[in-house]
Structure formats: structure tokens, C-alpha cells
Amino acid sequence: MKKNHINIIFGLSLLVASFTACNDYQTTAIDYEAPEADKEIDPTPPSVDPSWQLKVVSNNGQFDKRVFVYEDKLYNALFSTTKGWTGGDIVFSYRMPNNRIVWGARDSFFGVVDADTRARQSNANTVRTTLLVQSGDVNNPKQGDLYALNDLVQTDDPTAKTYYNGVEIMPSSKSNRRYYPLLANFLNGQMHVLYGYYGTTPTAPRYSTALVDYTLTGNPGDAGYLHVDKTNTELNSNTLTFEHSQLVNNDGYTYMYASNVLNSNSQVLVSRLANNDYNSQLEFWVLNTEGQFEWVTEMPDSKLAAPRSNVLADNGSCQNPQAIKSGDYYYIIGQQYKDANVVYIWRSKTPYGPFAEQKTLFVVPASVDKLGNRKYSALTRVVLHYALSRQGELVFSTSQTASSNADNFTYPGSADYVRPYFYRIYNWESIYEE
User: Fold this and answer.
1) φ, ψ for residue 224, nearest 5 deg
2) Which pTM does this prediction carry?
3) pLDDT tens by residue, 68-121
4) Contact, 163 vs 123, CB < 8 A?
5) What residues form DSSP beta bridges with 122?
6) Which of 141, 271, 303, 350 satisfies CB 3.0 to 4.6 Å to 242 for a cystine?
């Protein structure tokens, strides 16, 4: 299968009925049967290696029949951990030069999970900032390849409540504020991670963005593997979440995308940084009052600028926009607002839009393959992972919440809420073929 381009030839079924009036009360129907060559051809499923442990997700007419969706059992198993980090809201992945992958997670659980029942012990603690590193063969992950970089309170006394509890990677000095990981990259021998600084109130206002530079030495688990070189808690005071995803483009810029919710509509906004450097001046793609888009270094009042600067055509809407380039097009992929199972896709000739031709890419199943109750309350995040693709397919993780916080503990399968599930989407570009 050719990467990023999966071509399937489709015919069109044609049925023409011609009617000739015999009189005012009678008609004679002349049936026409389409030639065999014009009839629709059923799409051929992709060729996948059985060792990848992919399970077909039924379509039931929810999305284009040329698109094939699979659950990824290998990656689901990789994230089915039993000690230390036992689940969380995965927000990004980034492949480093040594083929290791760094993962960022927020609102994670640390503690112990029963391997047979997948029940999380009730003494787990919640950590807002977590970094994990995956080593080994990215295409064939196995247990033990994933390592959380957070310090642990203690691992000696299984009877103590702090057993395998985690410590924040990026702690806050204020009880009413917290950091969340946003994105990461690797530049000049260092790993750079962006953190958003948020309030803890129900509205969770965004105050600023921090940047931490790390050096990674040796192997995950080694003493001193993650070394903090520099912390800048005042990188910028931008309150918009432009770090939902990043696209490193060949024009020398890294483009970052935000969803801005206003009047029950989640617009998509674009910013960019030069040279893939998070320290560069952030520029915003804004529609000015003269009706022209331009790059500016100061974001105007978001309540005024955001609605008119939406890069989705026809006032399109999605949450958690993800961006990718394939062939001659750039694509935006995101969930239907709010927390819906439908995942949309748009395309454009530029990384800053306008993104048009909205289509349904796939629909996330309403239940997950786990012990105990398989239904979940909300699908809170769908994240694209470029580094995991084998054959040009799109790879996503999803985050699901339980109906109540109590469902995250003690029950069979409780550890399998608030953890990533993985899906691979094949033949995805075919939905734009005639």
C-alpha cells in the first residue's frame, strides 16, 4: 500500500427511467440497466499484518464506506499499565531523533491496578502534569516500553497509601492554579515542553504559557534521565489555547491551532512560530477590520477577532483541532463540538486555510473494549499521533470519562476509564476522490 495515497477506482451505478406518454392516463416505463463496468465496486480492505492486532470497527453507514477503521489492540495493551502511571488524558506525542516517543498527559492517576480485574486501588493520587517516554519498536510496542518520567513518592511499602503515587512534573506554586502539558518538540539537543497555566475554578481561565527545556541522558528509568535545563514561566500571556496541535511545515514555520469557544461555536484559529523554536515570536492569523487576513504579533480582543478569524469555511466548528499535511493538501481534523463521537475533516492548500470540503472522517465507538461497564460518559479528546503511522494511515487516541469519579476506582475495569484507546484510519484520503 502506497503511503498517504490509497487509490481505489469506483464506478457509478446509473439507472435511467424513460417514460413515454401513451395517453392522459397511461405511461409506459422503459427500464435501463447499467452496464457492468458502471456498477459500484466494493472497496478492498487494506492489507494489514495480523501481528499488529487490529480489530475492525463496524461502520453501519456512519462514514464513507471507502474508509476502514480499526481498534489498535497493541497500543491499547501498551497503555494498560499496573503500577505508577495507570491512566490519564493523553494530549500529545512527539517522536524524538532517537525514535523514542515522548507523550504528554494531564489529569493522570498514579498508584496500583490489579492486573486481572483492571481495578484501580482507591489510594491512587491525581497528577496534572505527566511526561512518558516510549522506547523499543514503535511499530510493535510491548509491555515495558512505556515509562513515566514523574518521580514516585515511594515504592517500598505496598501497605502505605503513597505506594507508587506520582509527583507533578511541573508543580504550581499556587493552590488555585495548575499547569497542564500542551506540546513538545526536540531542538538543538534538548526536549522543549510547553505548559499552559490554568485556574482551578469551573471556568478554568488560562493565564499564561510556560516553557521548560530538558536534557535527556541515558535511558528512561536512569537516575537523572530527565534534567531540567531552563524554566520560563512567562513565555507569553496568551489566553487562547493555540497548542492543541502543531504542524512543522517546509516553509520554516511551525503552525499551531486553537479552538476558541464562543456562543456555542468552537472556531479554529491559527498561529505560527519561526524555525520550530518555541522562543520565537508568536504570530496570529487574523482577519482585520478591512476584511483581509494578515499575520500580527498581538492577538486582538478574542471576543471580536476570533469569530471573524475562523479558518474553517462556512463558520465551521470543531474542538481540539489536529493538523496534518499529506500530498498537496493540509488537513484539519477535529471532533464535533461538544465532546461528540463524530470526527470531521477539512482540507486546504495552505496551513492557514481556509479549510473547506468538510466531511465525516469516522465515528468513535460509543463503548470501549474493557471489563465491567463499557459505556462512558463523554469523549473528551481525540488526538492525532503522526509518529505511529505505519502505512500512511491516521492514528488517533481517544480519552473517555466515567459517569462519576467513583467509577474510576475499585470496580473491575475501573482503571480503563480516563486512559487512551487507539484507532487507525485507513484509506482516509479516498473520501475526497470523485
Assistant:
1) 80, 10
2) 0.89
3) 999 999 999 999 999 999 999 999 999 999 899 999 999 999 999 999 999 999
4) yes
5) none
6) 271
